Amino acid sequence: MRNDNQPQERLERAKQYVEKIKGFYTHLFIYLLIVPLLIWLNVTSNTNFPWALFPVLGWGLGILGHASEVGAVNFFFGKEWEARKIKEYMDNQL
Questions:
Q1: Where are the domains of the chain?
Q2: Taking Cα atoms as reference points, which of 81, 91, 80 lies closest to residue 25?
Q3: Based on the number of CB atoms within 10 Å of its own CB, is 74 exposed (0-12), middle (13-18) or buried (19 or more)?
């Protein structure tokens, strides 16, 4: 049985949560870099078929799923943001 009142356990769970959020933002950043490339490749290719829609929409659904998993809301993170999120998570885990 897990004792939620132990500060060290709460801190570790909060750190894991913040790492999940950072993972989401990394995922989103890569998506935002690759999607324009896919669209450009589709437009410049010798086909009239919009094949880029399939990876863009599929990957976009993955991004939405990842976002809902972590409840990501802030696009800028750094040490201050991490500390704030850790404190916020720990305060909510009474």
A1: 7-89
A2: 81
A3: exposed
Q: What would the 3-class secondary structure string for the chain be?
A: CCCCCCHHHHHHHHHHHHHHHHHHHHHHHHHHHHHHHHHHHHHHCCCCCCCCHHHHHHHHHHHHHHHHHHCCCCCCCCHHHHHHHHHHHHHHCC
pTM: 0.66
- Six-digit token pair at 19? 């790492």
Q: Which residues contact 91 (CB under 8 A, 6 or more apart)?
A: none
9-51 pLDDT, tens digit per residue, is: 888 888 998 899 899 999 999 999 999 999 999 999 988 999 9
4 versus 25: which is more confidently predicted?
Answer: 25
pLDDT of residue 3: 54
